[in-house]
Amino acid sequence: MNYMDNIRNKLALLPDLPGCYLMKNDEGTIIYVGKAKVLKNRVRSYFTGSHNGKTQRLVANIVDFEYIVTSSNMEALILECNLIKKHMPRYNVLLKDDKTFPYLKITNEAHPRLEVTRRVLKDKAKYFGPYPNGYAAQQTKKLLDRMYPLRKCGVMPKEVCLYYHMGQCLAPCEKEVPKSAYEEITQSITSFLNGGHEAVKKDLQKKMQEAAEELYFERAKELRDQIIHIDALMEKQKINTVDTKDRDVFGYAVDKGWMCVQILYMRQGKMIQRHSSAFPFYGEAYSDFMSYVTQYYSDNPALPQEILLPDMLSDGAVKALMPEAGTGAVVTGLQTAAGMLGSKEMLAALDAEDSAEAAAPPQQEAEQEAAAEGTVDAAGGAAALQEWLGVKVLVPQRGLKKQMVGMACQNSRVALDEKFRLIERDEERTSGAASSLGQSLGLESLNRIEAFDNSNIQGTNPVSAMVVFIDGKPARKEYRKYKVRTVQGPDDYETMREVIRRRYERVLKENLPQPDLIVVDGGKGQISSAIDILQNELGLFIPVCGIVKDDKHRTAHLLVGDSAEPVSLARDSQEFYLLQRIQDEVHRFAITFHREQRGKSMVTSKLDSVPGIGEKRRKSLLKHFGSLKKIKEASVEDFRVLSIGEKLAGQILDALKDEEPSL
């Protein structure tokens, strides 16, 4: 029975129940995990009908599947998240750096501290955030440090520090601080971060006036500075709502097999920033979007009060949801959003919308399509997420909240368009640079460039490396490394001859593609050596050029042919920039290879110089200790487990101590 017969038999037995499915390749590796409202419909849809290119690539690798039935959509949502985190499937949307948002944390210690962290743990600490970037979190912490005297030091010092004398620490190192004092400070910080900064500001203004009346001008100035810092911090948060709720507003767009998700953060009723993630996706768009949202909130104790999600549109949330924006309007950031959300009358209607939004059905066409395929629809996904997280999750159908989601979706579309335009522009510039360079050299076409560089230190461990550029872009799979076999000492010309001979003998023997141009690192001597081997030994007439560096090891100019005639290229041209990239890349590749070889030879020479240490014992030492550094730091007793006596151990340590690595 082949694998397709096995799949057909399994498809016939699929239940009409919600759950998760796991797709496997021919090695038994799980390559995709998905959830379904109806397993039977969803899993069958992969093997029937037509798919886009990305989904076809996924389906082509599926040779088996298994499934897990759940009792509800919520269980399927959570199970999918856990399975993705466990198996890290190749074709799933995986959060990589999206969980590294900064948070403010009040530690759960006898003497708590306020710190900025990117790791959210279940350690009973209080977390506030996420903040849009590290700078915003650090600035907020800096302000709170001035206002609330929690300890600043990581390790308790033996005596009071400068923070105590500045009034920014209670000095638990010097005196007993009651628990009630910390509870009061923690409550004040919590109140401030949850929108109570106006009350704090009024209290500071009152204290400043009292200090000024009592002629404590220095204290009054400190309080005034704190008020200024609060104003400066809050002034950056432009967009306001009247209910001061913490909201995360999601939007997404898809195009050319890529998805972009935008999150607009509203904290204390103020929109502080947005976050954008773009990644390839292989499954159904809305299902993969919900997978992203679920992963984002897993193990995250710092939840907002409300989450707004887009509806499941048939076009993948591509079109804007803002009727006020004209057909030519593009929302590119928070400046446009400020104008859109400026109406107080619209803001006041937020609470009135909630009841309608929570129960609002998705678009009928999208709902029918979801039911047919067995996928989780927008309302079902939102309900499952709300039940799991315990916070309100809405799919707005009208009013201001729908405009917020529309703004997030429109920003997603703009971000994707920008990504593709940049890619197209980069491809045009790189291929254009290669074409222009070919014209400067008198070549009809310049698609494939192969570049060589040699590396050695006073003739030791001589190596060479080759990199390949196709249409101006590096083709890393075709890079090659060479250990120089026949050359003794630092002879760059003979090294070039050997490597060129070895490379192009293989090209002829295996009928590999020939380059349009060969680039060598050096001047006339290196060019002549390469041409001599190519033409006189191999009968190949491939153009050769050399890149000459200046005294600061930077690309200076280009020489072409056996006569080494200079080619005039403007220093600010794309052709010159392409040459720099080629030279830097081949030099990096050669140096990296040389360091690897030099490191291996150092290990060999140091241990082999000790009488009684052969190849077998050297490998045993390195396997046991892990590195030369660890061997050097070991004691004589540590060698006994390898059956090495005190005398030989002493000789090994003396050899490593006397011979320092050359730089």
From TrEMBL:
Annotated region (Disordered), positions in chain: 353-375
InterPro entries per the UniProt record, alphabetical: GIY-YIG_endonuc (IPR000305), GIY-YIG_endonuc_sf (IPR035901), GIY-YIG_UvrC_Cho (IPR047296), RuvA_2-like (IPR010994), UVR_dom (IPR001943), UVR_dom_sf (IPR036876), UvrABC_protein_C (IPR050066), UvrC (IPR004791)
Domain UVR: 198-233
UniProt entry tagged with the keyword DNA damage: yes
Molecular function (Gene Ontology), one example: DNA binding
Residue ranges that the Swiss-Prot or TrEMBL entry lists as coiled coil: 194-221
SMART domains linked: GIYc
Organism superkingdom: Bacteria
Residue ranges of every copy of the UvrC family homology region profile domain listed in the record: 249-534
Record localization: Cytoplasm
Residue stretches of biased makeup (Low complexity): 357-373
Primary residence: cytoplasm
Alphabetized SUPFAM superfamilies for the sequence: C-terminal UvrC-binding domain of UvrB, GIY-YIG endonuclease, RuvA domain 2-like
A single Gene Ontology CC term: excinuclease repair complex
Every GIY-YIG domain range: 16-93
UniProt keyword annotation of Transmembrane helix present: no
UniProt signal peptide: none
Alphabetical GO biological process terms: nucleotide-excision repair; SOS response
Pfam family, one: UVR
Keyword annotations of the record: Coiled coil, Cytoplasm, DNA damage, DNA excision, DNA repair, Excision nuclease, SOS response
Known partners and oligomeric status: Interacts with UvrB in an incision complex.
Family: Belongs to the UvrC family.
Role played: The UvrABC repair system catalyzes the recognition and processing of DNA lesions. UvrC both incises the 5' and 3' sides of the lesion. The N-terminal half is responsible for the 3' incision and the C-terminal half is responsible for the 5' incision.
PANTHER family on file: UVRABC SYSTEM PROTEIN C, UVRC/OXIDOREDUCTASE
Protein name: UvrABC system protein C
Source organism: Paenibacillus borealis
Lineage, top ranks: Bacteria, Bacillati, Bacillota, Bacilli, Bacillales
